Please model this.
Amino acid sequence: MSSNQPGVIRRFFQGVWNALNFTRRLVFNLIFLLILLAFLGGFLAKRPTISPRTALVLDPSGAIVEQFSTDPTQRALASIAGNESPEVQLRDLLRAIDSAAKDSRIERIVLIPDEIASVGLATARELGAALDRFKATGKEVIALSGGMGQNEYLIAAHANRILLDPDGAVLLEGFANYRSYYKDALDKLGVEVHLIKVGTFKSAAEPYILNQASDASKEADGYWMGGIWNEYLAEVAALRKLDVAAISDDISHYDERVAAHAGDLARLALDQKLVDQLTTRAEAREQLRALGAAEGKEGFRQVDYKSYLATLAPQSLSRFGSQVAVVVAQGEIVPGERPPGMIGGKSTAQLVRAAREDDNVKAIVLRVDSPGGDAVSSELIRRELAQAREAGKPVVVSMGDVAASGGYWISMASDEIWAEPNTITGSIGIFGLIMTVPDTLAKLGIHTDGVGTTPLAGTLDIRRPLSPQLEAIITSVIRRGYSEFIGKVAQARGKTPEQVDAIAQGRVWSGAQAKERGLVDKLGGLGDAIAAAASRAKLGDDYSVRYVERELSTWERVALSFSDSEAMVRVARWTGFRLPPGMFSSSELQQVAATIESLRGKRYGAFAHCFCELH
Model:
């Protein structure tokens, strides 16, 4: 035996390393092969052929959002794994509906809302308006459902007919905003909570200092939620030709109505005229076969909305010609650069600046769907929009489901603000929340003591009681911040600070209520805002709409082009390749992580946020 031959242990670890290296190369080669097959499939695959008398099946699966929060690579990999994307872009659904309205081959829309994971009220209203435009061409919309909540029903109510499964239900319950309150728990732990706020109705931090909602909080929440609920009832009643009082009475006595129908929720919905017919899915298919061209033994001639979108001519990506630029501001407002699904002070400001510096962009529409966040980042975005106006480019804001607190802050620097009647907006107020834990540590036998070189040194140490001097400083800063907030609103809305203060104080309003108080100019959707921006720029009908978003890398463009590709699906089925479930993080986790990251290295920060969720 040669004395230079490696020992047993060395040969073992070398074997393990070689095995790992081989596995790594194998995995990357397999991924490359899949991408190559997808390319070939994309080149060879034919676009779906749309025959006359085809029904467009609108069955979105996931949360309906303004902008994907997952990147193209994640969506492509999810497609390879055979997983449904957890998100559907509102703009894609609107494009499918509006294109189908002009397409002589599309005879009707079959709406199936059952797989919608979440949809905001303003988004639902936007989709309903698109369905109304489709019906205005003389075509029919049929809604088919196994059961709906009230937000999904708001979309379905725009259909000509609603077919409900005999075991289904339509649950209309009204809106609520309940929160947990922690004062007693924090007292038991010895945590001292110091709340400094400006705005009687700014109630976001109340759970940390009270055991129940304040009277002001209940008054404000009851008012804006009542306004949105009345809008909801009026819209449903008008669409279904019902009486608002009758719908309200049915909901108030739902227990009696259910008992009278022996627990049959579907029959109750039919008798309440919320739906038109109770049918199983098989019976509905037969009805659709009778209405349109039959195809196969049980099916009817149909195309799903994703396949239909693939048949449409690509939206122009040209940077030439007059354009209305749309910048999406969706999610929490946090410092720095952030991916889609969150609003980064730096990254969103850069998008606005890119639109301002593009000579082909003649007007800018800011689409806002945000409860607010970091005040400094909000101001950075507002300044960029103000500079765009100073450069002669009209700026129009379109409010989505929520544009409150910091979401309203970034909306101020505009020529015009549009909102849906059920948009949640306002919440003009500022608060500061400081927690200290000296008593908590004392319960554990831990005490803090020492010296500082100035009265301010160590005052931000949560182990020590709050210094009266620090409290006075923070109070002055917050009061100045509120004064600045209402001052900017007053300047933007042509009011005095006193007039704004009377409708501010942290109060939340519905879009309709905000319009009555001069915080919003007009009621309508994104399309209305785009048309208004084009009109202000005097573009006539000769313009295109372009979403200004982060530039994609070459790989992301490739991945995006195949993320919804039929070729990708065929390759996945052919190879049997599946990725592990749960591989992709949710947008909520991404938002929480980004918010926490934004606080790193900061001793304090100001946030303009609205905790105004409906349940």
Q: What stands out?
A: The domain at 323-447+456-542+602-609 is CATH 3.90.226.10 (2-enoyl-CoA Hydratase; Chain A, domain 1). The two ends are 77 Å apart (CA to CA). The longest strand covers residues 361-370.
